[in-house]
Write a structure and sequence with these properties.
The complex is a heterodimer. By secondary structure, chain A is mainly alpha-helical. In chain A, 40% of the residues lie in helices and 6% in strands. By secondary structure, chain B is mostly beta strands. In chain B, the strands form 17 sheets. Chain B has a 22-stranded antiparallel barrel. Chain B has a 5-stranded mixed beta sheet with strand order 11-16-17-14-15. Classes of the chains: A mainly alpha, B mainly beta.
């Protein structure tokens, strides 16, 4: 019996003493915050996750992202109702700080745990990378909301004063963004491997972000000093890129958007790769492959804005068919980017304007579909694998020339013909696609400071030079991300007023009796060049023959009034009532966005 | 290593025990005792047969009163015992009334009466058994043979549904091989944890009830409160389903049994997808919303084509078959922009099998030879699924078990066993690449979408051909359990048990995807050219040289390319070591004091690792193998482990069988929490009072044969959470950014926001119960319970968006479930041999979140949209109260009969709407879509009740304090779950009817089967909706005017509200069985021990309140059986495997 008890005792003792070890079973397959910050490789892995967030390209799967096919601007006419501005404070809406938290953790860990792990060069590079992404995020938040809470450290979940802090003034936020950008500009590596952020990418995005803030400051906040600070930054970054000689304008316009492989393309400062073999695909063509229906297209306003290839506007060009907007003629007389962006024959498959956007469709597919063939699986659904430009050199040149022109108005050096030649004229001189040449498309004449176009439609508040720079940008970047953002930073949302500008509700110029006789039915009307609207009426003799002009469906409705309303600010987004109430219930204040009711 | 060590120590203990106790007489050692007697008494051998109404009974204990020792009847009910004339022989057996017979001759034949008092039953409880009479905790057990013996059920979970009050079982889908959802006492007990009961088979946890062959089960007990389940500790917080398997016989014998069941399955609800009426809905919605162009999505419909569709029906309906080819000109046309369909296809008919065959077979050998008893069994289940075009859609399971036990000596018993289960699910590996299977598409697309019909001899890409051409996927779950154990009788009443079990799961999933080529009707068609020239067709779709229209065809596309074709294998290997040791001491002092003490330990170590690999580009699609693939290789692996240790003790004390007390104490440790928070003590106590044993109750004992009241309280720890809750983990995964050479970036995730002080959740149970028995025939059990989850792990108070992450979780929350259970049973045999039995149970439970993340927010400010809001009843649905549909007369019109438009300003928001007639009408502009006049509230929209009487219908602040006009309109928890069984047998004939149901449950559905107008462009909807929506000429309709919600479950006036809440209560006649067992005289002639044949109808009758919607009322939106987890088929209600009914035939034979 004694033996038995002693064995039992021994067993119990053994079990208790080894239990602690027995119960020690940490995660086997994931790192954690306590053990991950030990190598440069891990910092690189950590930063890798920001690429798809900040460089969306054509998105992935059916998620398009916000870089392309933006269908809310004065370039666009929609079938039926037009896109609307936010006109009321929503119940629930707020910014996302997920990336801010993530980046602040990265910067904090680099600073506090990795100074001995990383070489000084690596330390500065990765700090620069973190600051670059943080600057991009804050610049985006500021553009959307104006003042936003600025946090540059990870905050504890119990630090309520920091968590519930009210908005930081925009200028304070943007000064920090300025600091982050300049640090990145000075410290990020010149080369850190393929498809990664390097100093040129940083500089390229600086031209975009700084130009944006400079414009907001000049036109919305009317603060020329701050405007100058950011325009200078944009110019400096642009100078740096131009001087680097690493990039060039060498690819025909459409091929930049339709190439299966942009590797090594000198027009690209950054691009996003897609690959069928590993199932990374996008859907930019799911409704823009010429075969499928799409409900929005180019507005007559956009078509009228295109410059003619003699460098003049349609009202006073000396070209023979300058006033002929019929698409077949239009493409021969307008800047080559029009032909490169749209299908030449009007088609009801574009229900908004009848002019079908083919900017993202390879020319051979366009030809195949036009001939009655199928687009093919790779050009439908979310099966597209064309590479996406993330930042094009052409945009950088336009950002740079715009910043220079704006600086000139603020006491800076005047824009020279050399500046124009180095930017706009360089772009105008890009190669033409053989298919375009076959259609009679020619390069647009260089812009000359001495003989800027005389545009009767020019907004009188804008100088002729800046007007032309903005036109160039509109032609270069149509149906990309920027038009609505541009209108906001220029304080020109009035261009979106459909009552003041009926061209926003009309589409392509169509000779219906000849080109689309089947479309002559109830609901059709056309707008003549003089603005006169002709409505089709089957009972009126000769009505059918009159159906030649800019297409306008009688069901196409104007946008609701969004300007001059009290308590509505179309430039900046409001936050939700719920969020303001949540702050209040904890004894804190969250201010409503400027221009919206503060209650 | 650790366990091996423990086990060898246990064995060492065993051997020493044997040395000390070999000579001690053991009460159970009957043979020894009998032989001891034989040598001392006068030899008078008495022989005979013991039988009951249905034949000889083996295993009856036969003893001579006043003389120690006894014998047991053999398999033929025969016995031989030495007993002097004049002595009294006692025959006793569990389940029978004991009978005393005076010895008057050498031959005695006895017929025993079955005992009705089921309280005499012995119930399996944690680490032991307990007489039902002496139970003080909440334990239910079922009669396995009666409940599952003759039903075409693949697993015990489906068999137990409706049989135990408080055990809620839901079968959310007809998917074969899937697990039912089992919950004990309420649907939720923990938000971060599992809330699932622990399933133990012979004290070893099993991962799925599907692994066990129901025919191997000897008994099932369900431990519902802490007092009964706390002994199982760390994983038993939400109750235990305790399964014991069949063991070898108690007497020298051998029996062989064979049973089978053959069944035919068919859907129990007709799946009626709307045709013409659905298209009319689509058109009406399009027109109501003043949308430009034709209606519909990929396939369009307008008024013109709608008329043609009706013509098609008249001309070709019943002539053109489901599988006839698609013809341009007859079945569809294209206007250069849009495709219009004319033919109505029948997806339900071509996709759902009407008769699927299933069969199950079980073979068992059971017996005892000398000191060794054994039980061996083999089982086979083959069940076909319901997907008609699939090459294979079925579930097959093989089971084998062995249980051996041998008495090494009087004091030492050694046992061992093995259980193996191999379940294989074969299914078509859908080509969609979506997180959905072909069932979704059957319920998704309008009937204008071609299905199962070829075009120009080419398969069309549709759910039918996608399924038919898919490769078969194999999901194989193998489970093996090996166990060894020993019992040592140390002293009289003191024994020691040690068991070690090794169980392992080896699961794999093998799929491959061939390239797919098909006629692609999703996007634009192309011109039909033959030899380069355009083909023209006539109105019958036939090519013609004379007139006709230029024909189009679907382009033939390779939509899964060879580069995308692939082979994939995934496997998981898990190991679980379970070591249980306990020692029990039993003693009765002074006849009145029964004491039982137990001490034990329970150690579990579990780990798994998994890996998967894929290689693309199959070069031999007929034989998909990794060696025949030449493309991109991807792979991954994962692993995890956890362990638990527990030490426990239990003490029982009973005084005169009247006063019963039990106490449990357990000390638990787990690997899931930070080291300083790993251990906790968990106590439980229970007590009972058998009133009927009191002398003052004796005079009513004829009526109230038994009465006991009992109560229990206890605390159990729960740790069924992930082991990373307190660790800011950073996972490394691939993302979709490529490096320029087609290789994906890897990324390291952002560390989560976590608290490092996460520990056990404490589950506190209280239970009071009463067991009553009237006239020895009618039993009543009543339970009332409360279960609190204290220190529940929930996210902390919500933080503003600037935090950039979810609030960290912690032990902040609390939840409480209260409920009651009633069980009735009745059993009576008439003198003519007719026996009737009845069993009924009813239970209810409600869970309330007593502390949620918003506990610091005043009640008035807590949001209705917070699921786990403090003070909220779990499952509550808030919504508006439907008044009726607006009719034309409710509105004001101008002289031309047009709506007058007015502006309503409410809380600073001005919105235009159609003016209502009458004084002070109540406006509900909040529900208007957009701002255009087509979105204005109009006739046919829902009119709500102004609950708060403020003159407007709004959602207020969406808080408890200001819910606007919303109120609690339902609850998604199944309430009043009941089961009812009636049985009768008479001279070999038996019959039983089993009914089961849920008294109350509501959901706001999701998806096209539940929400009218859910996705009108996709087009499919139930006929029940399509024929009963408001139109100008159908103003008395149930559903509002047609509206396209564009994939949302809520919009315009179709928001959560009382009228369109789905009433998911139901009543099912779950099973009807009629059987006949051969009588003993016949059996003797054919040399069988028993033989029975039966017919069983499962799930045959369903009564629900779903107004004809093709939804199984047991459905849980987003639950898809065992192939997908989480958001199955986009979370839509009812869009999965159709549930089926079965008609079956079975035989049971014993040799």
């Amino acid at each position: 019996m004694k033996i038995k008890y002693s064995i039992a005792l021994l067993t119990a003792t053994l079990m208790f003493s080894s239990c602690e070890k027995f119960l020690d079973r940490p995660q086997l397959t994931s790192a954690n915050d306590d053990n991950a910050w030990t190598t440069e490789e891990n910092v690189r892995l950590y930063a890798n996750k920001y690429y798809t967030d900040f460089f969306e390209g054509y998105g992935s799967g059916f998620t398009l992202g916000s870089s392309y096919l933006l269908s809310f601007s004065d370039d666009v006419v929609r079938q039926g109702n037009q896109g609307e501005f936010t006109l009321a404070v929503p119940n629930s809406a707020i910014w996302s700080y997920t990336n801010i938290r993530s980046i602040n953790i990265m910067l904090d860990r680099i600073e506090n745990r990795m100074s001995s792990v990383l070489s000084e060069e690596a330390y500065n590079h990765w700090t620069g990378i973190g600051k670059f992404f943080r600057a991009m995020r804050y610049a985006d938040l500021v553009t959307t909301y104006g003042d936003v809470p600025y946090l540059d450290k990870p905050i504890s979940d119990s630090d309520y004063d920091a968590l519930f802090k009210d908005r930081t003034p925009r200028n304070e936020v943007m000064d920090a963004v300025y600091e982050d950008l300049t640090f990145a500009f000075e410290n990020v590596r010149l080369n850190d491997g393929a498809q990664t952020v390097n100093r040129y990418v940083v500089a390229g995005f600086i031209t975009r972000l700084a130009l944006t803030e400079g414009s907001w400051q000049k036109y919305y906040y009317k603060d020329n000093e701050r405007a100058k600070k950011f325009f200078e930054l944009a110019k400096t970054a642009g100078d740096y890129l131009i001087a680097s000689n690493k990039y060039d304008i060498v690819t025909d316009y459409r091929s930049q958007f339709t190439s299966e492989d942009l590797k090594g393309n000198k027009d690209m400062i950054m691009y996003r790769q897609y690959d069928e073999a590993i199932n990374v695909k996008h859907a930019v063509l799911s409704t823009h492959n010429l075969a499928d229906n799409v409900t929005y297209g180019a507005s007559a306003d956009l078509l009228k804005a295109f410059i003619l290839n003699d460098g003049k506007v349609w009202q006073n060009s000396e070209l023979e068919n300058a006033k002929n907007f019929a698409t077949t003629e239009l493409f021969k007389t307008r800047d080559s980017r029009l032909e490169a962006s749209f299908h030449s024959k009007p088609t009801p498959r574009n229900r908004g304007s009848l002019l079908y956007l083919t900017k993202f469709l390879p020319r051979d597919v366009e030809a195949r579909v036009a001939a009655g063939g199928a687009a093919g699986t790779a050009f439908t659904g979310a099966n597209n694998t064309t590479d996406a430009p993330v930042l094009r050199y052409a945009e950088v040149l336009l950002n740079w020339i715009e910043a220079k022109a704006e600086l000139a108005t603020l006491g800076g050096a005047a824009v020279t013909q050399g500046d124009i030649d180095q930017s706009i004229n360089k772009i105008r001189n890009r190669p033409l696609a053989p298919e375009a040449i076959a259609k009679g498309v020619v390069k647009t004449a260089p812009m000359s400071l001495g003989t800027l176009p005389v545009d009767p439609e020019r907004d009188v508040t804008v100088s002729a030079l800046i007007w032309e720079i903005r036109r160039e940008r509109r032609m270069e970047m149509t149906f990309e991300y920027s038009r609505i953002e541009d209108l906001k930073r220029w304080s020109k949302l009035n261009y979106m007023d459909t009552d003041a500008n009926p061209d926003l509700l009309a589409g392509a110029w169509v000779d219906f009796p000849t080109q689309l006789p089947d479309e002559i039915k109830d609901g059709l009307s056309v707008v003549k060049l003089n603005g006169q609207v002709e409505v089709f009426n089957a009972l009126t003799p000769g009505s059918k023959e009159k159906m030649i002009g800019f297409y306008r469906n009688t069901n196409t409705r104007g946008r609701q009034t969004f300007l001059g309303l009290g308590n509505v600010n179309p430039y900046l987004s409001p936050v939700g009532r719920n969020q303001i109430n949540e702050y209040a219930s904890r004894g804190y204040v969250l201010s409503q966005t400027e221009g919206w009711p503060q209650n | 290593m650790r366990n091996t060590l423990l086990f060898s120590i246990a064995l060492g203990l065993t051997f020493s025990a044997e040395a000390n106790t070999a000579k001690v007489a053991n009460a159970n050692n009957l043979n020894a005792a009998t032989s001891y007697l034989n040598s001392r008494l006068v030899q008078n051998s008495v022989q005979g047969t013991v039988s009951d109404a249905s034949g000889p009974i083996p295993g009856v204990t036969v003893s001579v009163v006043g003389v120690p020792g006894s014998t047991i009847t053999d398999v033929n009910g025969k016995f031989t015992i030495n007993a002097p004339l004049g002595s009294t022989i006692r025959f006793s057996s569990i389940g029978y009334l004991s009978q005393d017979v005076k010895v008057t001759s050498n031959s005695i034949n006895v017929t025993l009466q079955e005992e009705d008092n089921s309280l005499e039953e012995v119930v399996v409880v944690g680490y032991g058994t307990q007489k039902k009479e002496h139970l003080t905790g909440a334990v239910s057990s079922i009669n396995v043979k009666e409940v599952m013996g003759s039903r075409p059920i693949p697993d015990a979970g489906r068999g137990m549904q409706g049989t135990i009050p408080g055990l809620s079982i839901t079968i959310p889908s007809g998917e074969v091989g899937s697990d039912p959802i089992m919950k004990i006492r309420g649907q939720v007990a923990s938000i971060a944890g599992s809330s699932n009961p622990l399933i133990l088979v012979d004290n070893v946890e099993v991962p799925s009830i599907n692994l066990i062959n129901p025919s191997d089960i000897e008994s099932i007990s369900v431990l519902k409160d802490a007092a009964s389940s706390s002994i199982y500790g760390a994983k038993a917080a939400f109750g235990v389903i305790l399964i014991t398997t069949k063991k070898g016989a108690n007497t020298d014998s051998q029996s062989i049994s064979y049973t089978n069941n053959l069944s035919l399955q068919s859907p129990f609800k007709p799946i009626e997808i709307a045709g013409i009426d659905g298209l009319e809905y689509t058109l009406e919605a399009h027109e109501n919303q003043e949308q430009p162009g034709p209606a519909g999505g990929f396939w369009r419909v307008n008024r013109e084509s709608f008329e043609k569709i009706k013509e098609w029906q008249q001309k070709y309906g019943g002539i053109v078959g489901n599988y006839d080819p698609v013809l341009y000109g007859r079945d569809w046309y294209y206007d250069g922009v849009d495709k219009f369909g004319l033919r109505l296809y029948d997806p339900a008919e071509v996709m759902i099998k009407n008769n699927a065959f299933s069969h199950l077979h079980n073979l068992g050998i059971n017996g005892k030879s000398g000191k060794t008893s054994y039980n061996l069994s083999a089982g086979y289940l083959g069940q076909q699924g319901m997907m008609k075009p699939a090459q294979q859609d079925d579930f097959t399971r093989y089971n084998g078990t062995i249980n051996l036990s041998t008495k090494v000596s009087d004091a030492l018993t050694v046992r061992g066993g093995a259980m193996y289960s191999n379940g294989t699910k074969r299914y078509p590996n859908s080509a969609t690449g979506f997180t959905a299977d072909p069932w979704l598409y059957l319920y998704r697309w309008s009937r204008l979408f071609p299905i199962a019909a070829q075009e120009h001899g080419t398969d069309v890409r549709d759910p039918y051909f996608d399924t038919q051409n898919a490769h078969t996927g194999h999901k194989i779950d193998r489970y093996l359990n090996l166990n060894l154990g020993t019992t040592v009788n140390i002293l009289d009443g003191w024994d020691f048990n040690a068991d070690y079990a090794f169980s392992t799961q080896n699961n794999s999933n093998n799929t491959s995807m061939p390239s797919f080529t098909g006629a692609w009707h999703w996007y634009a068609p192309v011109a039909w050219n033959e030899n380069g020239s355009q083909v023209y067709v006539d109105e019958n779709g036939m090519p013609t040289d004379n007139g006709g229209v230029p024909a189009y065809r679907f382009p033939v596309e390779t939509y899964i390319t060879k580069e995308q074709s692939n082979i994939y294998k995934q496997s998981l290997f898990s190991k679980r070591h379970t070591f249980n040791a306990f020692t029990t001491y039993n003693k009765t002092f002074n006849q009145d004091h029964d004491v039982k003490v137990m001490l034990g330990t329970n150690v579990v170590a579990y780990n798994w690792d998994s890996h998967w690999a894929r290689r693309t580009n199959l070069i031999n699609e007929q034989n998909p193998q990794f060696n025949f693939a030449t493309g991109v290789e991807t792979n991954g692996a994962d692993a995890n482990w956890d362990s638990q240790v527990g030490f426990f003790g239990r003490a029982n004390y009973a005084y005169k069988g009247k006063y019963l007390v039990e106490g449990n104490l357990r000390y638990d440790g787990t690997s899931k929490f930070p080291s300083h928070l790993r251990y906790r003590w968990y106590p439980s106590v229970s007590a009972g009072w058998v009133m009927s044993n009191e002398s003052f109750m004796e005079n009513i004992s004829d009526v109230l044969s038994f009465a006991k009241i009992r109560g229990s309280w206890g605390n159990i720890g729960d740790q069924s959470v992930s082991n990373s809750l307190y660790v800011p983990t950073m996972d490394i995964v691939k993302n979709s950014w490529l490096n320029g050479s087609g290789q994906q970036f890897f990324q390291l995730g952002t560390p989560g926001s976590v608290s490092n002080s996460i520990t056990w959740q404490d589950i506190e149970h209280s239970n009071i119960g009463a067991d009553l028995r009237f006239f020895n025939k009618l039993g009543v059990v009543f339970e009332y319970f409360q279960r609190k989850t204290n220190n529940m792990i929930i996210p902390g108070e919500s933080l503003p968006a600037t935090f950039g992450a979810n609030a960290p979780q912690g032990n902040f929350g609390a939840l409480r479930t209260r409920g009651w259970e009633v069980n009735l049973d009745f059993n009576h045999r008439f003198d003519n041999g007719l026996r009737i039995t009845a069993n009924a149970n009813l239970a209810d439970a409600i869970s309330v979140i007593t502390k949620g993340a918003d506990w610091n927010t005043p009640w008035d400010n807590r949001l209705l949209s917070t699921t786990y809001s403090t003070g909220r009843t779990y499952g509550d649905i808030f919504g508006y109260v439907t008044d009726r549909l607006y009719q034309a007369g409710d509105f004001a019109y101008d002289a031309n009969g047009n709506h007058i438009v007015t502006t309503i300003i409410h809380e600073g928001n001005a919105r235009q709407t159609n003016m209502l007639a009458g004084d002070n009408p109540i406006y509900q502009t909040q529900f208007q879509t957009g701002t255009a006049n087509w979105g204005y509230i109009s006739p046919g929209d829902v009119k709500f009740v102004d609950v708060n009487g403020d003159g407007y219908i709004t959602n207020g602040k969406n808080t408890n304090g200001d819910p606007g006009d919303r109120m609690k309109i339902g609850n998604s928890t199944p309430r009043y779950e009941y089961g009812f069984r009636l049985g009768a047998d008479y001279k070999g004939f038996d019959m039983s009817v089993f009914m089961q149901g849920v008294g109350k449950r509501e959901i706001w559905g999701a998806g096209q089967l539940a929400i009218p107008g859910f996705h009108v462009k996709d087009g499919a909807m139930p006929q029940a909706i399509a024929e009963d929506f408001w139109k100008k000429d159908r103003t008395d309709a149930f559903y509002p005017r047609a509206w396209n919600l564009n994939g949302e479950a809520s919009g315009q006036t179709m928001v959560p509200q009382s009228r369109y809440l789905l009433d998911m209560s139901y009543f099912k006649i779950k099973n009807i069985t009629v059987g006949y067992a051969l009588q003993p005289n016949v059996l003797n002639r054919v040399h069988l021990k028993n033989a029975r044949i039966y017919v069983s109808l499962e799930n045959f009758f369903l009564f629900d309140n779903l107004r004809g919607l093709p939804i199984d009322p047991e459905t849980i939106s987003g639950n898809g059986g065992n192939l997908t987890s989480g958001n199955y088929n986009l979370g839509r209600t009812g869009t999965g495997n159709p549930s089926f009914k079965s008609a079956s035939l079975g035989i049971q034979i014993g040799l």
